[in-house]
Each structure stands twice: as structure tokens, then as C-alpha cells.
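Page 42, continued from yesterday. The earlier attempt failed because a stray header line got pasted into the input along with the sequence. Redoing it now with the clean sequence only.
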Amino acid sequence: MRADPSAFGLYDAACAADERLAGVLGSLAAEGEESTDSLLARLIHEVGGDGGTLADAAVRRGLATAVRNLRNEHPELEQDMTTGAARGGLASDMLCTLYRFFFAGLVAEFLRSVVAEHLKLAVPLLVLDVENTIADRVAEKVLEVVPNPCEHAAETTGPRPDQEPTLPSIAASLVPEAVAHALGLTTTKEGAQT
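This time it went through. C-alpha cells are written below.
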């Protein structure tokens, strides 16, 4: 990927999906869903696209992973959705968590597919353990380097509160940086590469 960022089509697919996700954050902040299943269906429809490449499939599986991890991180989410408390919109911290988990899920799912394909040919008995171990470790690293839109929102102050950028606009402005960090195409502030 560092030698050719267009390899596998992952960079372009991630940028396009992240742009769409940033747009959906605004509508999710205004109007939530009835369940995490309906949230996932909405994200797959509005963000996942209908492409048939390995990268497109990783985007959709990454969304599923992000929703699952969001539910684990915020166990109150399902109850809030069921009781209607979340229908008025999801909280900013949940949206930012979803945004970051999407990148971790995207990269992990892409790696699971690629590693599984290559290992099936070389050492068929190791596939399940190795693909999950590698992908899970990489996902943890991705979470460390992907920028958090909520932190950027807290740092961004305008002359007047009504002129401050919204969470979706901040998330959209972070697309190039977030994708580059998630895919290991840039170095972090500390100088380490993902």
C-alpha cells in the first residue's frame, strides 16, 4: 500500500465510504434508529455501496464490525433504541466511536480476507487463528492512530458558537488524514508508522 496506495482499491473505497459516513453522522445525530440491526442496515445502504471488489466487501464488513463494537462499548445503546430514547438521535460520543470503529473494522476485515486467501494456500490449518490474531492486533493499532472527530470538535472554537463546525463537517474534513493513518500510509505524531 505504501508503494502503491491504489493497490486493491482500498484507499479509494475507504475515502468514498468515509465521506458517506461523515454525511450520515448528521442524520444519525438528528434521528436515531429502532435497533442496532436497523442501524446496520441503514449504514450498509447509505455507506456500504454496492461494489463487488474485495475493498467494497471490506467496507460493508467493517460497518458490521463497527456497529457490533459500538454495541459492546455502549451496552445502553440497544435499550435506548428499543425504548425510543435514541430516536431523537445518537450522542456525539457514540457517533465518534462508530466513526473510529469503522476504520478499525475496515482494515481488520480487509486483512482477514487477504491473510486468509494467502494462508489457505500455504498452511491451511493455521488460517483461522492467524487471520484473527493479525487482524485484531492491527485493528487495535488503527484505533490508536485514527483521529477522533469529537476531540477535534472540542479543539475547534469559532468566534461564535453558531459558526463552529458540526460533527459531520469535522468528520468529513478528517477523511484524508483518517484514511492515511488507518491504512498506514503516513506516520503518527510520535513518528511511529502503523
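Notes: Residues 61 and 109 are 6 Å apart (CA to CA).
Reminder to self: strip header lines before submitting.
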